[in-house]
Design goal:
Helices cover about 50% and strands about 10% of the residues. With about 300 residues, it is α/β, with parallel strands linked by helices. Strands 2-1-3-4-5-6-7 form a seven-stranded mixed β-sheet.
Length: about 300
């Protein structure tokens, strides 16, 4: 159950003309969610054919314009471009006079807080950082997935209620992140979500190599249970040969991986060492078993070097 209540009418943003700069996977979904809450998408910018198709699909009848034209029409502008492109975009929009005083500028980067919007702030814009902690597909299903999604929110104190109200209107739950903590916050999300995809993809490839016809069906219940247990119990949910100290089994894994998928060995060893450290620290791995296990992992590393 959400801990946030729908904002009182006095705290809700007025119905706004919404523009999107960067029709990647995120911007159109957020604009479509704001449209459901009564706001009005008025313009979107996108360069690639894929961006234009995405905008046409999720924001039909909304014109595709240049970034400057989007800002000219919009009260609230979603800056949904890659992290590395954001500082230059903001500076360019501010320098060319595209930003209006009182205009809400909302970026969705996890890495940055509101300091990246400083050039626009100097010309009177109102800065918000609203990062949805979700992976996007670029399809209408994203709008549904925003329900209950946490957003990392950073904003000046005087705009905090407005920022949280916008998140709630999109179906999300605001989580306040201090400006100085944004890079750490984003690193934590990337560590969990991005690396999870890599681990699952590698696991599926190995299962296919082992002759499993439907690795997705095999992994689904197992990974679902593991994720649920981890979220509920943290390190107490650790299981498997590393946490048990089964050095012989781990050695067999490394041998087979070197034979069939050598590109996965480094990742296996790194995760096994991290798992062993956490299992030891939480009393799950017995010290007398850890010595042999760590020796196997060290030998595995030496094999990589050779």
């Amino acid at each position: 159950m959400s801990t946030f209540q729908q904002p009182e009418p006095k705290d809700r943003p007025a119905r706004l003309a919404v523009g999107v700069v960067g029709a990647g996977r995120v911007g159109p979904a957020l604009a479509a969610s704001l449209q459901l809450a009564g706001h009005r998408p008025v313009a979107v910018s996108g360069v690639s054919d894929a961006s234009r198709r995405r905008a046409a699909s999720m924001l039909p009848e909304v014109p595709v314009l240049t970034p400057a034209q989007v800002l000219e029409r919009a009260d609230l502008v979603l800056l949904t471009v890659p992290d590395d492109a954001l500082p230059g975009l903001v500076e360019g929009l501010a320098e060319t006079g595209a930003v209006r005083p009182g205009q809400l500028l909302v970026h969705t980067s996890g890495r940055y807080g509101t300091q990246v919007l400083e050039p626009a702030l100097r010309v009177g814009a109102l800065p918000l950082a609203l990062h949805p902690a979700m992976t996007f597909t670029g399809t209408p299903v994203d709008v549904q997935r925003l329900a209950g999604c946490s957003f990392g929110v950073t904003a000046p104190e005087e705009l905090r209620l407005a920022a949280e109200a916008l998140v709630i209107e999109m179906g999300g739950e605001p989580e306040w992140i201090a400006e100085e903590n944004r890079p750490l916050y984003h690193a934590a999300l990337a560590l969990g979500a991005n690396h999870l995809v890599t681990l699952v993809a590698e696991s599926m490839e190995l299962l296919r190599t082992a002759g499993v016809e439907a690795p997705d069906r095999m992994l689904g219940p197992l990974l679902g249970a593991a994720l649920d247990n981890a979220l509920r119990s943290g390190d107490a949910a650790l299981t498997g040969p590393v946490a048990r100290g089964d050095a012989g089994t781990v050695a067999a894994h490394i041998t087979e991986l070197r034979k069939h998928a050598p590109q996965t060995v480094a990742g296996y060893l790194a995760m096994a060492r991290a798992t062993a450290d956490r299992a030891l620290a939480h009393g799950l791995l017995k010290p007398e078993l850890a010595e042999d296990l760590l020796g196997v992992l060290a030998n595995g590393t030496e094999g990589d070097a050779g």
